[in-house]
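Quick illustration, no need to memorize.
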Amino acid sequence: MTRKALVVRGGWEGHHPVEATELFIPFLRENGFEVRVEDDPQVYADSPTMGETDLVLQSVTMSSITPEALRGLREAVVAGMGLAGWHGGIADSYRASSDYLQLVGGQFATHPSTDPELVRGGETDNYLDYTVEITDLGRRHEITAGIDDFRLTTEQYWVLHDDLNDVLATTTHPVQSYHPWHRPLTSPAVWTRDWGAGRVFVSTAGHSLDVLQDPNVRTIIERGMLWAARAR
């Protein structure tokens, strides 16, 4: 049976939702998915569509969602559909919807900037060199097995999260003289979440197209989509 993937994209254009998702649509098709693309999360309120969807790949930063659409998304995941995404497209969506935040299990709080003396007013002010560290669980998990710790130069997400997440990779925010916090803080960088009969996958890396094409990041996202998708 051909599985069905629904790509939902939109919101803030700074995360290039169209171009970013286009990087992964060929992979889904090569792995046997029939792919449908929508530019509005209201599709989640369409019960027949959601009932036959095996995977939602979402890239919608900020924006908003109606109660009907959110209910449809939650019910579909509980029934066995997978939900996957990266960066703000899943971890910074629908900020006003607490039920969405509970479903995903992590919410973007900030991405610390570089030294204020080096700030120039562009997006690279928030680019830091940091390490993505694979956890013990991650070294055994099919999404991240065989991947070693790796470095990125991009936004380093600080994420608010809970203990229902199975964390496959982390990143640690150091303390700098210009920061108001007083000890290093470790945030999840890759996690999965079981929700009802469904699965959720999140990678916080993915701010820009070059990051999504990093071999480690791309491999993790590709494996994460396959892991999250409903088995037929």
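The longest strand covers residues 185-195.
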